[in-house]
Amino acid sequence: MAEFGIAAPSVKVAGDKPATATGKALSVVALRKTYGDVVAVDEASMEIAAGEFVTFLGSSGSGKTTTLMMIAGFCEPDSGTITVGGRDVTRLAPQKRNLGFVFQQYLLFPHMTVQENVAFPLTLRGVPKDEIRRRVGETLEIAGLSRFGGRKPRELSGGQQQRVALCRALVYRPPVILMDEPLGALDKKLRDQLQVEIKTIQQELGLTVIYVTHDQEEALVMSDRIAVMRNGLIEQFDTPRELFERPRTPFVADFLGAANFLPGRIEQHDGENTLVRLTQSGTLLKARRHDLPSGTDVKVAVQPGRLRACAADEGFCTGTVETATYVGTLVRAGVRIDGGQGPLLRLEVPAGRGPVAGERVGITADADDVNLFADEQAG
Ligand SMILES: Nc1ncnc2c1ncn2[C@@H]1O[C@H](COP(=O)(O)OP(=O)(O)OP(=O)(O)O)[C@@H](O)[C@H]1O
């Protein structure tokens, strides 16, 4: 077993880049699981580097938990392989895979103190008592729980109990820690705080984490890479920035940023850009270059935060503001495009510069923020 110590090499995550890899921590090849007619996970494949924080993100029933449970060993795949640190663990029992788990339910032993709970995985492995005391002390300190070592779980808040569960997973330094909606039972403020704490510990200790959530913001805040899942398939596996700015499918564009979609047809290509004739307004829009031929029907996708209001008739289209809602630092506006029967175009603009209901506005966006999808890809 690897020596435990908080002096593990510090892994700095630069911007949205994956953490520095020191090798492959885990790989999954063509993993598949069916329940009768339901394909819960369909040929999922991915490689996760040591020190990476990877999130499975998707709506309910998309296959996130099933994938995680197959990695954990609690659910047997129909086919495919799972490798941890180069070792094929596909048919091994969960306890032989040496992975750490943190679930939404804390699953702490109620009759044991915090110290005893955290010590449990080490006791199970026959680690000497002195060594256990040292490791438990270090781990509780990392999570800011040193003062609570003698308490029973019921004497702790939900957030503190979840920190204890995290410590119990950390204490034997497994090569990979699996977390299934660990913050799901906590209120928003505590969730925000624990997101930062977990991320900090993960980076400082260089841990490899696989995390399941259906919360887009949580995934964007915490992850080096996100696997967006839909109907058992991994739709895109990428950095948060790539997913947000370069979604490969309309589903990803919608799921991560609630994109606006506008129908149009490619008119021509112009260097770095593609010109699209919008169906509703008949006007021209400059998008990021897409190699579809002229005349192709497309869906134009732009995130609400990447649209700007400008003077009427100066943008790529003009319309009337129907709704303008103040939400703290932002104004969310809904604009009815001239000539259009479609849904309102949604804009998010800094409060103070927001348009007001009834105002005539032009709409503009940088071409690089406008993505195109072939029409048959939509939906
Ligand atoms: N034990 C089971 N028996 C039958 N069907 C199952 C079982 N477990 C999962 N499924 C089905 O497999 C699909 C994927 O479920 P899974 O729990 O992996 O989704 P999820 O993305 O984790 O959803 P959630 O966010 O709701 O937990 C769903 O259609 C689900 O109904």
Automatic annotation (TrEMBL):
Gene3D superfamilies given in the database record: 2.40.50.100, P-loop containing nucleotide triphosphate hydrolases
Domain ABC transporter: 26-256
Keyword annotations of the record: ATP-binding, Nucleotide-binding, Transport
GO cellular component: ATP-binding cassette (ABC) transporter complex
An MF annotation (GO) of this entry: ATP hydrolysis activity
Alphabetical list of Pfam families matching this protein: ABC_tran, TOBE_2
UniProt KW Nucleotide-binding keyword: yes
This enzyme's EC code(s): 7.6.2.9
PANTHER family: SPERMIDINE/PUTRESCINE IMPORT ATP-BINDING PROTEIN POTA (PTHR42781), SPERMIDINE_PUTRESCINE IMPORT ATP-BINDING PROTEIN POTA (PTHR42781:SF4)
Record protein name field: ABC-type quaternary amine transporter
Organism whose genome encodes this protein: Streptomyces paradoxus
